[in-house]
Task: inverse folding
């Protein structure tokens, strides 16, 4: 019974972890803008946390490079199961404008499995919220 | 025996990955060593495969917060090599968008700074005000953050009379709201408790460490690249904002006053803007070396451009303000409490995407 | 290019820098550019009251360059960066990242050299 209660509340109020891989900051501050009064992602019961062990949804912005891919995998592994990964911005999807640069591995999906892709350079807050809501449905299916 | 405590790369206070190795004895920091490379993309090297016009799109993405200034700095460097005269209207339009960027960046920082000492409602309020500035960006250029208005030789988009009137009326409202927050931000007991006398840098220290921007100006050095008179700044009337104390509170004050100063500069620019062309014709290819500097929200941005008459640039070197301000963190942290680390690190307004490019 | 340009050699670079510091200049940054297969150009930029001054040092790529970080501490970061990207070696760095400032060990080449220099042949002492 206790387990069911936790499962249900995780669906209703998923916690969110944001990691900036190698983004130009544009998508990062849009993710932060989602938390602030005008867009207010907390009305969906979503709380931004700093600890991967508390998180259900991982938001990743930016390209993956050789150094931060280890950090990204580490964060992903620390999150409890089930988990949803949302890649944000053109860089997170494919490497974007930086895909030819020497230190860029590519999109987030080269390193960890991605469930939702949010395009845009930078992605608008509306698009990010939409992506997170789709992520919520996927999260529900995985439960 | 000091304890080693890692700070970052994923940290709730900083949205960006910076890693600091802190040696701590009894809660007091004895040494801090930074580690980088989590955001390094190597975009200076992209100059080999993109031509010099396309590089504008790349340098805009050095940093999403001050993207417009990066493009402006780059365009000014190329214009200097090629001897292109930018039309006066374009110069004034550059000033308007640059100051809008400075405002949204400073408001962003003031919010994050409030968040770093746990004043969350202030963070929310400041970011609510900031959205108005982003709305202006979106209405005038089509994008909220990376506005992409610069081309080599001028700007891409124009503002009509109606839009300028609307910008002024929006800014009047922004100013009113910022003034309302002034007492909370500047006189509040908790804010002062966390920021006054934290991370003090004296004038000579700041100068010797080669700092830039508000971090330097908070230590009583009146250095502002806008005084060089690039774009249309030579026709506008303003003074660098300077504070004497050199602590986190002084840095906060400098940025707060600069936000209001930006509103003033935009008003002046709108009242003085001449009619005319938007961009000059750019023919042939650049050949030569140049150094270009602009004042970004975080300080002096430095571009070294070397071209050899080909389509692609020979070398593009970008020195961003945070890169110059990193030694300040190392100088400020020893002797401070571990709990002050987020406040002190944030007080230089770190932009890691800029630093590592 | 705006500002005064002074040519220096490996022996005089630290002395010139110290002289500039006494004159009250602020260290801005250093730039590095490749000239050809063997030669490399290092520029030191200084600023005083918005006036720039540059030092130009042209060296062979495999000659170690004396670091100016004992004079200007702030130079250690940019010298480490050049070490990473151009395979130039700096002697006497205040904090030496041993070419891991930006790039991980698994990146074997120096990205900014048009003529690839293997990282393994560089001999960085005892780097694990």
Result:
């Amino acid at each position: 019974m206790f387990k069911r209660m936790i499962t249900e509340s995780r669906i209703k109020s998923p916690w969110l972890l944001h990691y900036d891989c190698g983004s130009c900051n544009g998508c990062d501050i849009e993710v932060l803008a989602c938390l602030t009064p005008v867009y207010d992602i907390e009305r969906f019961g979503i709380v931004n946390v700093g600890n991967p062990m508390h998180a259900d949804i991982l938001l990743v912005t930016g390209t993956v490079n050789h150094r931060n891919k280890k950090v990204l995998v580490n964060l992903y592994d620390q999150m409890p199961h089930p988990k949803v990964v949302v890649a944000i911005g053109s860089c997170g999807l494919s490497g974007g404008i930086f895909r030819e640069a020497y230190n860029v591995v590519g999109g987030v999906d080269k390193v960890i499995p991605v469930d939702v892709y949010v395009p845009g350079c930078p992605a608008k807050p509306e698009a990010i919220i939409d992506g997170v809501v789709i992520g919520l449905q996927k999260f529900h299916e995985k439960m | 025996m000091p304890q080693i405590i890692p700070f970052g790369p994923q940290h709730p206070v900083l949205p960006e990955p910076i890693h600091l190795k802190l040696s701590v004895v009894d809660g007091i920091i004895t040494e801090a060593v930074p580690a980088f490379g989590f955001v390094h993309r190597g975009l200076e090297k992209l100059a080999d495969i993109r031509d010099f016009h396309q590089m504008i799109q790349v340098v805009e993405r050095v940093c999403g917060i001050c993207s417009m200034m990066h493009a402006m700095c780059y365009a000014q460097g190329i214009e200097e090599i090629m001897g292109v005269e930018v039309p006066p209207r374009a110069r004034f339009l550059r000033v308007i968008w640059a100051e809008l960027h400075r405002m949204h960046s400073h408001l962003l920082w003031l919010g994050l700074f409030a968040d770093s000492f746990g004043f969350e409602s202030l963070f929310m309020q400041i970011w609510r005000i900031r959205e108005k500035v982003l709305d202006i960006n979106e209405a005038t250029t089509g994008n909220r953050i990376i506005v992409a208005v610069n081309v080599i030789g001028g700007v891409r988009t124009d503002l009509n009379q109606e839009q300028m009137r609307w910008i002024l009326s929006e800014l009047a409202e922004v100013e009113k709201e910022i003034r309302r927050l002034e007492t909370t931000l500047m006189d509040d007991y908790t804010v002062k408790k966390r920021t006054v006398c934290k991370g003090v840098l004296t004038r000579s220290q700041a100068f010797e460490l080669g700092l830039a921007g508000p971090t330097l100006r908070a230590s009583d050095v009146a250095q502002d690249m806008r005084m060089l008179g690039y774009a249309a700044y030579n026709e506008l009337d303003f003074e660098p904002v300077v504070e004497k104390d050199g602590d986190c509170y002084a840095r906060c004050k400098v940025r707060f006053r600069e936000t209001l100063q930006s509103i003033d500069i935009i008003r002046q620019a709108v009242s003085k803007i001449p009619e005319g062309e938007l961009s000059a014709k750019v023919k042939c290819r650049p050949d030569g070396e140049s150094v270009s500097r602009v004042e970004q929200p975080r300080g002096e941005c430095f571009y070294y451009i070397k071209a050899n008459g080909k389509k692609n640039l020979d070398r593009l070197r970008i020195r961003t303000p945070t890169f110059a301000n990193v030694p300040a963190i190392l100088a400020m942290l020893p002797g401070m409490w571990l709990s002050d680390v987020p406040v002190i690190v944030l007080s230089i307004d770190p932009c890691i995407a800029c630093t590592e490019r | 290019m705006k500002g005064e340009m002074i040519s220096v050699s490996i022996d005089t670079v630290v002395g010139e820098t110290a002289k500039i510091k006494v004159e009250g200049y602020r260290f801005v940054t250093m730039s590095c550019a490749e000239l050809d297969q063997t030669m490399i150009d290092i520029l030191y930029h200084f600023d005083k009251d918005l006036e720039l001054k540059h030092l130009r040092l042209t060296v062979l790529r495999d000659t170690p360059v004396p670091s100016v970080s004992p004079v200007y501490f702030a130079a250690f970061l940019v010298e480490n960066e050049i070490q990473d990207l151009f395979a130039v070696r700096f002697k006497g760095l205040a904090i030496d990242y041993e070419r891991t400032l930006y790039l991980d060990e698994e990146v074997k080449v120096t990205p900014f050299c048009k003529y690839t220099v293997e990282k393994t042949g560089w001999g960085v002492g005892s780097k694990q």
